Amino acid sequence: MRVQTSTVFVRTGFAGDERQVGYPSSVTLFIVCGLALFAIIKYNFGKNLLEAFQSLFNYRLNLRMFEERRESDRQAALLLNVLFSLVVGIFISLIFPFFGATPLWGSQVLSIVFFSVVALLLYVLKAQIWRVMGVVFMTQSFSKIYINSMFLHNQVIGFLLFPIVAIIPYIAEGVAPYAVYGVIAIFALFYLFKLFRIFQIIHDQNVSFFYFILYLCALEILPLLLFAKGCKMLIESIVL
Question: Most buried by CB count within 10 Å: which residue of 72, 131, 165, 171?
């Protein structure tokens, strides 16, 4: 049985040799699932989604939403977290060919599932570590507010980037690399904004600046460096 593929032509690092990249039709299945989730969130939780976007850039509104936490907000947050993990899984799996690597275990399906689950579990683990550190250093209020803000950032990023990630396998030659690097740039900008929000929360909660440095190094910078190093080693180990 012949498997249909979606094909794009890319230039590694914008300056490398042009080569053909084929994506199996299974990728389309994940994108369709993401599209269905995207539509459910948009039409069933449109008001919650709008408030999430507003509260991302409005700290006081963020605090008010955190204190109220309606049931519809929890349902929307759950779906948005799933969409975020799916976007991460699809995006990481799609960019492997751009660096001359093959999907994990040679399967695009397993690769997407693996990275989606890992992304979700890592943020759940990170939230638990924040809670423990909040208890240890008696900064529970700060920890709870930041955990809410962290997931809020992820939810907005996932919703915003899904349309871009979804079209990467199907856009014209020469455009795909720009879409990939554009997604990476947006991730980086949102990450910097998240670091600013950490400082804002610490200042508002009158937490010692020492804890800001501790949180920043232990739970933001170090995990980011380890993740980047892990991705680099993983790609190097399976380069074609």
Answer: 165
Report the C-alpha gap between 120 and 112 in whole angstroms: 12
H or E stretch at 73 = helix 71-95
Token representation of residue 98: 């751009």
Residue type, 225: L
Distances (CA, A) of 218 to 2, 60, 114, 150, 213: 49, 27, 25, 15, 8
For residues 48 and 166, the answer to whether their CB atoms sit within 8 Å is: no
DSSP tag of 23: E
- Alpha helices (runs of H) in 168-221, residue ranges in sequence order: 176-204, 209-216
Residue 58 has φ and ψ, to the nearest 5°, of: -120, 100
Range of the domain at 78: 5-237
Residue pLDDT, tens place only, 168-223: 888 876 788 888 888 989 988 888 888 788 777 777 777 667 766 777 776 677 76
Counted domains in the chain: 1
The tens digit of pLDDT for each residue in 24-58 reads 567 888 898 999 999 998 888 888 888 888 887 77
Do the beta carbons of residue 179 and residue 166 sit within 8 Å? no
Distance between CA atoms of 180 and 192, rounded to whole angstroms?
19
Question: pTM value?
Answer: 0.77
